[in-house]
Amino acid sequence: MTTMSARETALVTLDDIEGAAQTLAAVAVRTPLLHFDALAERVGVPVYVKPEMLQRGGAFKFRGAYTFLARLAPDARARGVVAPSSGNHAQAVALAARLFGVPATVVMPTTVTPAKRSGAERLGARIVLAGTTTMHRWDKALEIARAEGATLVPPYDDPFIIAGQGTVGLEIASELPDVGTVVVQVGGGGLSAGVATAIKRCAPTARVIGVEPVGAPKLSRARAAGRPVRLDTTSGLADGLLAIEIGQLPFAHHQRYIDDVVTVDDAAIPPAMRLLLDRMKLVAEPSGAITVAALLEGLVTARDSRPIVAVLSGGNIEWDGLQELFARA
């Protein structure tokens, strides 16, 4: 599964990310950096969180989706868009499409959480359910795009998507130029690729550490093999990070800009969510809280006295889901 073409063989540049920031300036939320005292006490250096649950659509995904649609030719955009997604990309594409006044179809897994499905429905998207894996969704979205003449909006393996997500890193670097470590989620790789690119270009001495679920170690396997490796299956609480393969273009960025990747066990995620809720009053979904879990578990530690930033990628979980998860934990 890849959307790469000849124009996409080069890595996304800082200019690309700054261009995406200009595109997003009037429509996206510039989320704040919030000091996390409770976590700083445990880690021993200042710790900040970047709360992308405060972004439109409840997750970072709006940044990439809007950037992609903004770059489409008007006639292509008018024919509509279709997006394969486990949930957050679907909501982001639905919102971006509504802002542009064009139709959107989103292909979601049969196991999609109620919060993520209802979010896409509220934003006016047509919902199609297809299987449980990344490939099931991709194949169905491709089929719809071909049949209806719509443009497929890839969730991560695209330079415009990466540039849009990279604005998260651009904002971190501009507000905290002495950042020492940035901890970021790894799903298909669009967010981690964009953030790593922005951080390393703006604050080259900072570390960037990727975090993925132990049940979906697609970047860990890829780095060991030197190329993207397709996993047989993935599983875990962090449903937004269960891609079976890292994207080709994101992986190229990871190889250049990511310093290390760690894996987090499911059992560590609910305590991180609870700490964010109790001490920061922030509702994070499992995928969003996994970076804090990595810090709590000691998988990422301070290298020096400079601050650490943990990206909170999203918060698309509702009350019933929180109750069920905390009860199981």
Q: Would you mind describing this structure in some detail?
A:
The strands form 2 sheets. A 6-stranded mixed β-sheet has the order 1-2-10-7-8-9, sandwiched between helices. The N terminus is likely disordered. The protein has 2 domains: about 220 residues, Rossmann fold (3-Layer(aba) Sandwich); about 90 residues, Rossmann fold (3-Layer(aba) Sandwich), CATH 3.40.50.1100. Helix 1 crosses helix 8. With about 325 residues, it is of the alpha/beta class.
Question: Main traits of this protein?
Answer:
46% helix; Rossmann fold; alpha/beta; 329 residues; disordered N terminus; 14 helices; 2 domains
- Quickly give the structural class: alpha/beta
Count of individual beta strands: 10
**Could you list the spans in which at least 5 consecutive residues all have pLDDT below 50?**
1-8
Molecular shape: globular
- The CATH architecture designation of the largest domain is 3-Layer(aba) Sandwich
Binned strand content: 5-15%
Q: What's the structural domain tally?
A: 2
Give the strand order of the largest sheet, numbering strands 1, 2, ... along the chain: 1-2-10-7-8-9
CATH topology of the largest domain, anyone?
Rossmann fold
**Which CATH class of the largest domain is shown?**
Alpha Beta
Query: H/E series, N to C?
Result: HEHEHHEHEHEHEHEHEHHEHHEH
Oligomer: single chain
Kindly report the average pLDDT value: 93
- Fraction of residues in helices? 40-55%
In whole angstroms, the N-to-C terminal distance is: 35 Å
Short description:
The chain is of the alpha/beta class and 329 residues long. 46% of the residues lie in helices and 13% in strands. It has 14 helices and ten strands.
